[in-house]
Design a protein that fits this description.
Number of strands: 0
Radius of gyration: 22 Å
Number of helices: 14
Order of helices and strands: HHHHHHHHHHHHHH
Distance between the termini: 23 Å
CATH class of one domain: Mainly Alpha
Structural class: mainly alpha
CATH architecture of one domain: Alpha Horseshoe
CATH topology of one domain: Serine Threonine Protein Phosphatase 5, Tetratricopeptide repeat
Shape: elongated
Length: about 240
């Protein structure tokens, strides 16, 4: 708990001192503690120290878990080590290490943000069938990557693919698509998506509301064309999120 607190406050030296103290007292830190330290190190851009700690963990006989791999893939991407992250990912797959959908999502996100959209799409479509299923986070990342590249037709196709695979879109998914269609001046698509949001009980956020108000002010859409979102629906959404 103390190590986690230090890491959350970006006081990594305090966390590492506690870690060293545990070792000196013969207490063997488990993989959860190591994972916490890895996150802390990557957050303050200490990539080399993260790898050094990983080597120490292996020497101490502590096995990495799926979470460890995800942390490294994500940490490398967020620190600009995209090529290294891809190499690590490929090595892990060759070694048949267990990777979850979060690991794929982190790498896809890193690839999209570094302008490697085609590689991201290739990875997205290479998800092991019957083993891993893309979730709303994975889809939303990929849709956002396509949106950033101006490929709204492909982004919308991916949205339809979500529906076919029974993956429920969230407000982030809808927001990305709505912003994209506004950018290419397709208000009819915005109305279509708003009705889809209503159908799926997804409440618009402030940025979506702002877009709708702007369209109304410019007379690009009519009030009668819009669905109505009730307070009751919003409460149901809040309740569902609290249960999760």
């Amino acid at each position: 708990i103390l190590i986690n607190g230090y890491c959350k406050n970006k006081e990594i030296e305090g966390a590492l001192n506690l870690y060293s103290e545990m070792l000196s007292k013969g207490i063997k830190p488990d993989v959860v503690i190591h994972n916490t330290l890895f996150i802390g190190l990557f957050e303050i851009h200490q990539v080399e120290r993260a790898f050094k700690l990983f080597d120490e963990m292996q020497r101490d006989g502590v096995a990495a878990d799926t979470r460890t791999y995800t942390i490294f893939i994500d940490g490398l991407c967020k620190n600009g080590y995209i090529v290294e992250s891809v190499e690590l990912f490929r090595t892990l797959r060759i070694l048949k290490c267990e990777l979850d959908i979060q690991a794929y999502s982190c790498l896809i996100d890193g690839l999209c943000k570094s302008g490697r959209l085609e590689i991201a799409l290739e990875l997205f479509h290479s998800l092991p069938r019957g083993v891993l299923v893309a979730d709303v986070v994975t889809y939303s990342i990929m849709i956002h990557g396509l949106y950033n590249d101006g490929q709204m037709d492909k982004a919308h196709d991916l949205f339809l693919d979500m529906e076919e695979n029974a993956v429920a879109p969230n407000v982030i998914t809808f927001g990305t698509l709505i912003h994209g269609f506004i950018r290419i001046n397709e208000p009819s698509k915005v109305i279509e998506l708003l009705h889809k949001m209503k159908e799926k009980n997804v409440m618009p956020d402030a940025s979506i509301v702002s877009i709708v108000v702007d369209l109304l002010a410019k007379n690009e859409i009519s009030l009668n064309s819009l669905p109505s979102f009730t307070v009751h629906e919003r409460q149901e959404e809040v309740d569902e999120s609290n249960v999760k």
